[in-house]
Amino acid sequence: MLCVIDLNQQFLTDFALPFKLYIDAACSQGLREALHQRQIVDGEPREGVICYISRKLNDSEARYGATQTECLFLVWALEKLHD
């Protein structure tokens, strides 16, 4: 898989602003997440990436249904980002 990242859209974290967490649990191979934030850049509101995280599913997790996989991912992502 090829991933292209536009580093011009990567922001420094501003803890005074809210975050958006985008999750992709549709893949049977693993979990992917992108933490975004909306900031004012050059006088314009823009949404950019703060960070990406991912991990592979183990054998039993790969058999989860969509709802269980999304719940697993949400808990995992929040725990990972809290550290």
Automatic annotation (TrEMBL):
UniProt cross-references to Pfam families, sorted A to Z: RT_RNaseH (PF17917)
Domain Reverse transcriptase RNase H-like, residue spans: 14-82
Domain of life: Eukaryota
Transmembrane domains' residue ranges: none
UniProt keywords, alphabetically: Endonuclease, Hydrolase, Nuclease, Nucleotidyltransferase, RNA-directed DNA polymerase, Transferase
Keyword Nuclease: yes
Matching InterPro entries: DNA/RNA_pol_sf (IPR043502), RT_RNaseH (IPR041373)
One Gene Ontology term of the molecular function aspect: hydrolase activity
Protein name: Reverse transcriptase RNase H-like domain-containing protein
